[in-house]
Amino acid sequence: MPESLDIVRYVDENFGERILSEQIRPEIEEWVKKLGHYYNHLLIPRFVKMDLAEFKTQSAVDYFTKKKTESIGDFQQNLDETANYLVRLHQDLEILCH
């Protein structure tokens, strides 16, 4: 299955005037790096709560949790900090509006 950007490139190259730019905007790159410091704290603890095939067994959940706890810390603590992470995310999203 093609990746999303592959599909976008195909449409851009084959239908109408090309509008896609491969130029990386430094301000967007910096914004993505900034979010990279905390967005996994919001996402990763929720993965094991979703009905994903990868986590059908408790051993799979335990392995994933142990592995990711090494990089983001305790899952429950991250979930407890959701409100704080969302405040940061909303502030960072607001930057894109200006």
Automatic annotation (TrEMBL):
SUPFAM superfamilies: GST C-terminal domain-like. Pfam families: Glutaredoxin2_C. InterPro entries: Glutaredoxin2_C, Glutathione-S-Trfase_C_sf. Residues 27-96 form the Glutaredoxin 2 C-terminal domain. This is Glutaredoxin GrxB protein. It comes from Rodentibacter pneumotropicus. The gene is grxB_1.
